[in-house]
Amino acid sequence: MPRPWVVVLAGTFLPLVGLLPWWISGARSVPSLSGPSPVLLIPLADDVALLLTSLLVTGSTLTGLVLRRLAGTHRSTTAFWAASGHALALTFLMVQSGLVLGAAVDDGPQQSYHHALVVWSVGCAVLALAVLVLMIRVSRPGAALLLSLAAPAIGTWAKLWVPHAEPWSTEAYLLLRWLPALLVAAALIWCGLRSWPARGTWPAALAGLWVLPAADTTLQYLVGYRRADSPDEWLLAGVDLFTLSLEPAFAGPSVLLAALVAVAGTAVLSVVTRIRSRVTGSS
């Protein structure tokens, strides 16, 4: 296990990798304000509210994988120090963004808008901390499931690195569409099938790959829906889109790719492991 101060620094700065695309893009997107958009270290706006979840979860997941590898048998202690550092960083980011946005909004409805975004950011921060701690502490099947559930968020984060330049940006987006499926497959190969928890991880991970992208698409649509005359119309539009996004024609190819790659990779890994054990036993 690395020294505690090293883990604290890692927990403070490594998760910030998730926010790099936001910072590089200029860290400005508050269309609901009448004046110019302020610089916010985390995205606090209705059009990027779900993006905040993806960025924070991506940073926590990648950091958790790195620190899990370095922790050895001291995963609980490593998780504590990493979470301490991450909590400090998240507090600073939320305070800066909340204060700057609060100074930019007017009294009245925009104040309620500001309070709702601050509450949302706190919820995202708690989720990010939980992902970091669990990724380090839980067993391999649990960590593989967490990685699988975070795969759509990592896919969203990866797309932010693609410059908006034709024609190759379109091809890059098409390729990155399959990144969550490949991440889920890699997580399942790492998980294996040797225990009952590991076997239970497989259907749970594939179900998450089926449902989570549909839920993300629906929530993004509902956040930006401006034409509803009533809450019932707004909710009905979301239900229709969610149902459509779950159709096999839309969600099926990614799940099928993840399952095929996971099965093939697990089989190859099993054969390689048996050959190595025979070679070791014969020598």
Tell me about this structure.
With about 280 residues, the protein is mainly alpha-helical. The chain is built from eleven helices and no strands. It has helices spanning about 5-15, 20-25, 50-70, 75-105, 110-135, 140-160, 170-175, 180-190, 195-225, 230-245, 250-280. The two termini are about 35 Å apart. The mean pLDDT is about 85.
Strands, total number: 0
SS field, number of helical segments: 11
Mean pLDDT comes to 87
Residue share in helix: over 70%
Detail the poorly predicted runs.
Answer: none
Percent of residues in beta strands: under 5%
Order of helices and strands: HHHHHHHHHHH
Distance between the termini: 33 Å
A few lines on this structure:
By secondary structure, the protein is mostly helical. Helices cover 77% and strands 0% of the residues.
Tell me the layout of helices and strands.
Blueprint: H1 4-13, H2 20-24, H3 49-71, H4 75-104, H5 109-137, H6 140-159, H7 168-176, H8 179-191, H9 196-223, H10 231-245, H11 248-282
Helix pairs in contact: 1-4, 3-4, 3-5, 3-6, 4-5, 5-6, 6-8, 6-9, 8-9, 8-11, 9-10, 9-11
Question: Which key features would you list for this structure?
Answer:
283 residues; mainly alpha; 11 helices
